[in-house]
Amino acid sequence: MDKASKVDVLSSQQRKFRLLMAVAACLFAAVFLALSIWIVRGTEEDHLLRAARNYAKAIDSFRSFYAEHIVSPLVGHPWVIITEHYKEEGGAIPIPFTMTMDLVEYMSQRDMTINARLISDFPFPQRMDRIITEFDKEALQQLRSDKIPEYYRFTSGEQGKELLYATPILMQPTCVTCHNNHRDSPKKDWQVGDVRGMQVVSLPSSQNAFALSERFAYLIVFVVLSFLSALLALFLMDGRVRKTVRLLHDRNEKLEATTIELKQQQNALDQHAIVSMTDRAGDIIYTNQHFKDISGYSEDELLGKNHRLINSGYHPKEMFETMWKTIAAGKVWHGEIKNINKLGEHYWVKATIMPLYDSKGQIDRYISIRTDITQQKQLEQNLKKSYEDLYALTMTLDEARKSAVSASEAKSAFLANMSHEIRTPMTGIIGMTELALDTPLTATQRGYLGVVKSSADALLSILNDILDFSKIDAGKLEISVIEIDIKDLLMQCLKPAAVLARKKGVSLVVDISPQLPDRCLLDPVRVRQVLVNICDNAIKFTPQGEVLVTIDWQTLDDQTGELILGVRDQGIGISAEQQQHIFQPFSQADESTTRSFGGTGLGLTITARLVELMGGEIGLESELGQGSFFWIKLPTKVTQISPPPILSSQPNVILLSDRQAHLRSLQVQLGSLGLMSKACDSIDTFWKAVETKQDQTTYFIVEHYLSGALQGIEVIKKLIEQGHSLEQCILISDVSGDALSETVNQMGITHVVTHPPTRSELSEMLLPNSTIKAAKAEVDLSSTLNILLVEDNKVNQKLITTLLVKRGHQVLLAENGQEAVALCLDELFDLILMDMQMPVMGGVEATRLIRENERLLQRNPTPVFAMTANVLPTDKEACLNAGMNGHLGKPVKLAELDAVLDAVKRTAPK
Fold this sequence. Notes:
The protein has 27 helices and 28 strands.
């Protein structure tokens, strides 16, 4: 249709609309005439009520006429907009309710004798400011609750009697659809017959009296005014229509452009989505091109057919039942569906299905919008298969893990067995050495045995290192912090290193800071391991010169500080590249060093991890060919802060050493004992100091190895020749050869200490009555214990028996667990010391049988302590589970053994 034709059509519709409006005006005038006639009839109240009813009916009739004859023909018309916002939108006409409301308000403003209002307690947003009176609220409640056709009340005021008359405005089917779907509607659950609001007419009694007196004249005037009002409304609406016609041309062009754009958007949607529509039975009534392409069917093959045409049979029947229940209930269904096309090929879609409603608000169609997800589902299948493959790989890895755990358990069993085999002879070596140290010995012999014991302890520490590395690797190593004498511990640790250095021709120099406290909390075993490992490495890689060990202290607060250990050598040095992996397991600075120096490279790894476990730091500074400096910082808590000792003037101590560090260390230790000392770094200085001290209270501490012509032993000879006693002379030597030992014995020198001397050794020689020297406890022969020793190793049998007999106890020997079980049936013992690994029957099984026999014979349990080289946590746990009271490791520590014996004495029956 061209534009001229469209204009003709609009003009024709305009003429029809004017004719309809004229008829409406005439009808409106006739209605008001009838109302006027009714008003002048009857009594005052009757006239008022009749007038109000007629006025309300007239308004209702006009609204019905306007809705049926004017608005209804224009509903859906492409160029006429019917809206409550007709005043803001050019070319629009009002909806019936708005038309009536505006007309009533217009007439009420021009006729002061009557007032009409349309009231609703669910107003649209633009009418939220309308005031609802108490009468309005009461009338709305009565009209809704009692379902009455009218509600009125006569009131009296300053203007006289007045009638307030209200009639309900009921929701019609077209009203329900409009209001429930309108975007501005405040209520969207209206039903046909609901009271949407009410029409209120207010009439004063003066109008009726006026009408009675001048009935006919005013009747004509009223009718004329009403007719003129209707004509005026007609002309106003005609102006609106004319304006609408002028705007229709522009709107038409915009509508055409919008239609083109909508078609393009629909085309874009068709390219992406699979769209179809069905009736309520599920029969297809519309499909887009994408639906036809993916299904393989033509439009003729699809229209009128049920949607089951593309059902693949993959999904259960219950899924479709749930889907139909959902959409039939007016809800939206989302899901994934596997369909089948005309060629029998399957494809997956992600579907959204929702209902569409007719003008009466009833479901009449369903629309489905789908997206092809076939590739996505294929990817999911691939991922699922990959997951299954990964699961199979995980199971394989789990089997490998179990194999690794078995291998680890086998390794642990091997380490435990090796530990037992090595500890057994070590028990004999250490034990017999301790027994020998308890016998009368010369100073040289005591020095020899002291070095043997210290070396044996170091060897035992190496064995512990092997077990510790396994524990560290498994994350099971524990740090045991106790209170220790830090100065004595460090000097004892350095004694074997000094011997090793002197044999290689290297000097071990020790420098102690005076700020070092006496006692603090540390793990002595781990500190020994760390310091010995670092010193051994330094000596091993130093061909000549010296190894300097510095012991420093940094105070953090009143109770805590850092122990700082430093070891500086004059060895081959380490390059920057090699330093990056020096603390890694089984690595050395240079692989060629393995051939030159030996070793596995495990020591520094254990050292670094032990330092880390103790909460400390370890570091390295080195240059190739310039030696290395290892430093360690260990945080600790001070348990004893000794006040500065009062230095006595007597006895005086004169020191001789050509190393300033040794002199400083000796002065620090002597100062902590309250002794004043004179340090001499040359022979000449020493003799000058001796000349000034000729009394018998002066002590002389002389290092044997000096850089001058004289050695320490020769200096002591001259001191004796000058009249000084042997008790005044103390010789420090880091190694004792046969010649030196023979000379010491011939001279009768008894005060000989190995380098570096400990504070307790110096105290024992210089202060024989000092409280630092521990008094040996005497054996109480009255508390003799009857002890059963279950041990298969001959050396250990002799050693432990000697230790126990020496302490005044009776010992009965059993070669294996079976003999021990038999002896316990015939005799009662105060204590049983049980080995774990023995022929015939082991200690764990024997202990279980002993406990079982005690229960059967109703005997009190005999204390049973394991005395074994099996020291792993699992071994200790096995002992306790078998019924043992405790565990003593081999080599036996006398302090632990004495503690067990004392505990048994206290609990044994008198």
